[in-house]
Amino acid sequence: MCVILTSLNLNLSWNTIGVYVAQYFGEEIAKCVTLTSLNLDLTRNSVYDKGVKYLVEGIAKCVTLTSLILDLRDNRIGEIGSKYFREGSSKFVTLTSLNLNLKDNTIGEIGAKYLGEGIAKCVTLTSLSLNLSYRTIGQNGHKILK
User: Fold this and answer.
1) Is 35 left (phi over 0), alpha (psi -120 to 50) or beta?
2) Domain for residue 2, yes or no?
3) What is the rounded CA–CA span in Å between residue 87 and residue 95?
4) Does the structure show a pLDDT above 80 at 136?
5) Contacts of 17 (CB under 8 A, 6+ apart)
6) Residue 105 maps to which CATH number?
7) For 37-72, what is each residue's pLDDT tens digit?
8) Does the model's pTM come out above 0.85?
9) Can you give the residue range of the structural domain that contains 90?
């Protein structure tokens, strides 16, 4: 248990992490109620849309979180995963810095819209880095992000 942990940097890229492990991580991260900084790298796993739901739900329970780096490159995340992000991000009320890497997923145009709506709900953000490169949002997705 991480009751007094304020900063967590966890790199689990290039493993075989799937939905159920993502659910476990979400549940465990939710217990870290004093976290102010979270860097979670799950690059090139199999988190899928449902895994995003579990992760974001857990992260949203970290009510003191001000900095989030979430690297979900190449995790087979689509527009539903973006919708889950939108739903959970409304609870990121203390977040000032967000670095979200969704490179090489299949977010699509509608997913890009969901992401934009979710990020807009993070009203305390002062710093944003968003990577949607490499086949992520389609030809017109950038128009929807406006």
Assistant:
1) beta
2) no
3) 15
4) no
5) 42, 45, 46, 47, 51
6) 3.80.10.10
7) 999 999 999 999 999 999 999 999 999 999 999 999
8) yes
9) 7-138
